[in-house]
Design a protein that fits this description.
Layout lengths: L17 H10 L13 E5 L6 H14 L3 E5 L5 E4 L5 E5 L3 H17 L2 H6 L3 H4 L4 E3 L5 E5 L3 H4 L6 E4 L8 H13 L9 E6 L3 E2 L4 H12 L5 E3 L4 E5 L7 H6 L1 H12 L8 H9 L2 H9 L3 E2 L7 H11 L9 E7 L7 E7 L4 E8 L13 H14 L1 E7 L5 H10 L4 E3 L5 H16 L4 E2 L3 E2 L3 E2 H8 L1 E5 L2 E5 L8 H18 L13
Parallel strand pairs: 1-8, 1-11, 4-6, 4-7, 7-8, 9-12, 13-16, 15-18, 16-17
Antiparallel strand pairs: 2-3, 5-6, 10-11, 13-14, 14-15, 19-20, 21-22
Length: about 500
């Protein structure tokens, strides 16, 4: 019944790849005892060009008029389908043009061209509007880009969410949640949602990230099929590659493209490889290998961090050295970090780090006494010139420290946008230009703490410039913040005159 839209295959019957067929078998899986759908939320994750939007359009046309729901078992035990009475199909996208070009347009072409138009009575003049298709037998296919309030109260039988990695704005995510909440209202029609996406960018907090996190909690296999939660996550990806690998190792790129595209062999071409070389490393990995990586707004390249670690070698801050100290902390969920920077040469070193252990009970808290003890040990071990601490979660400890060391201890609120942006820029430039060295300190439980946290950090735009944020809830960036405060304290100490001595000159 369905044919391709404009292009080289226009008007020709669709021929699905084996991989697409397998996906549809999963997506339309039935419970043998009742004939009801197993999955009410289905996610298809593939790289660009795999034709996931086209497959989505075929599904929408099938949902509009085809025998897409269970009716009964025939005499041979095979399921017989029925159409949905007055189906209501909503297509959700970031903006109307995206939904129209990616999915709505192909649905229209499927229903207005080929056998479906004649059998079901579709006529462009009578049935097609700018943002909806009216089904002759009742029901509609519509594009949804409006506010979440306008979505409330709907009784959709099928929901399509296209390019979930682009759903970042809170209003759009709120509308998705509203539409998904509506789905159970027509329980007798077995409503469900099909969500398509390419890999999301770490740090953008898109709707796709919530889907990946949900799948990760269920299984590390692909596809993830969880009958209990009625959730299907069908995902393929290649291994993320470095810039050097993309530009210089064609065989490796081809191997990872094949891993990501499966039987969509038409995408494993020199043209795609050349396009990957033109794109940024992050976009090449996300778009063509479907690999989740930080976006293009990473705070700093780990190559610069590794050079700073290499420059430090085995050097460590010695007792009695002049240092500045930075502190950033939480009480439970985030990490708590204490870092020092040596005044003489900018060597950055961890003095303490606390984070919830994997096996910790739900009520675990950061050991406050141990943290305060580490703060005070810094003063007894080194000559602390300045101590900058972010106080929201630790006001009492910083107050007590300030009473004992009033000339050195300062509250430094990281919530101040302009000063924080300037401090982040100062520390980043110092690392990139070789002014900062980083003492390597592998923690047995949490790994290379500062290196990991710097790698996790992504830029978030603010009116004054930018801040940094963690890309995922489980990621940590607290060591990066603490080290930044220590470096900022050192910069201020230098401005205040540390290390300047009066020098008498003999005039000959």
């Amino acid at each position: 019944m369905l044919v391709h839209g404009p292009g080289a295959k226009a008007g020709k019957p669709i021929r699905l790849s084996s991989e697409a067929v397998i996906f549809l078998v999963h997506a339309y899986r039935l419970k043998p005892a009742t004939g009801r759908r197993v999955y009410d939320t289905v996610v298809l994750s593939r790289p660009k060009g795999w034709a996931k939007s086209a497959l989505d359009a075929f599904v929408k046309a099938f949902e509009a008029v085809g025998p897409c729901r269970f009716s009964h078992w025939d005499d041979d035990g095979r399921p017989v389908g029925r159409s949905v009475v007055e189906p209501w199909i909503s297509l959700m996208a970031t903006e109307e043009g995206q939904a129209t070009s990616n999915t709505f347009g192909p649905v229209r072409d499927c229903l207005l061209n080929g056998p479906a138009a004649e059998v079901y009575g579709f006529r462009e003049r009578d049935n097609v509007q700018a943002d909806r298709i009216v089904i002759p037998t009742g029901g509609l296919v519509e594009v949804r880009t409006r506010s979440a309030k306008s979505a409330d109260g709907g009784r959709q039988t099928h929901l399509g969410i296209d390019e979930a990695h682009l759903l970042i704005l809170p209003a759009l995510i709120e509308q998705v949640d509203t539409l998904l909440t509506n789905l159970p209202k027509r329980a007798g029609d077995d409503p469900w949602a099909l969500i398509t996406s390419t890999a999301y960018a770490l740090g953008e907090h898109s709707y796709a990230e919530t889907l990946w996190d949900r799948a990760a909690k269920l299984s590390d296999t692909a596809p993830v099929t969880d009958v209990e939660s009625a959730f299907l996550f069908d995902h393929r990806e290649g291994k993320a590659l470095t810039r050097e690998e993309i530009d210089g190792d064609k065989d490796l790129v081809i191997a990872q493209l094949r891993a990501a595209y499966g039987d969509a062999e038409w995408m494993v071409t020199d043209r795609v490889i050349n396009r990957m070389r033109e794109e940024s490393t992050a976009r090449a990995n996300r778009y063509f290998l479907n690999a989740v990586v930080p976006g293009d707004e990473s705070y700093i390249s780990l190559r610069h961090v590794d050079k700073a670690i290499e420059a430090a070698g085995a050097d460590r801050i010695e007792p009695g050295d002049d240092v500045c100290v930075g502190f950033d902390g939480s009480r439970a969920d985030d990490g708590t970090a204490l870092y020092a920077v040596r005044m003489a040469d900018g060597l950055v070193q961890r003095l303490g780090y606390w984070q919830r252990p994997v096996s910790a009970p739900p009520d675990w808290k950061v050991p406050g006494l141990a943290v305060e003890e580490a703060m005070r040990e810094a003063f007894s071990t080194y000559k602390v010139i300045k101590f900058y601490g972010d106080p929201p979660y630790w006001p009492n400890e910083i107050d007590r420290l300030g009473r004992d060391f009033p000339e050195q201890v300062f509250e430094w609120f990281t919530s101040r946008r302009m000063p924080m942006w300037q401090a982040l820029e100062r520390f980043r430039i110092a690392i990139e230009e070789g002014d900062a060295k980083i003492a390597y300190d592998h923690d047995p439980q949490f790994g290379d703490v500062l290196r990991t946290h710097l790698g996790n950090a992504v830029r978030t735009p603010v009116p004054a410039g930018y801040g940094i944020a963690k890309p995922k809830q489980k990621s940590k960036i607290d060591a990066a913040i603490a080290a930044t405060l220590a470096w900022e304290a050192r910069a201020d100490a230098l401005v205040d005159g540390w290390g300047m001595h009066s020098v008498s000159r003999m005039i000959l």
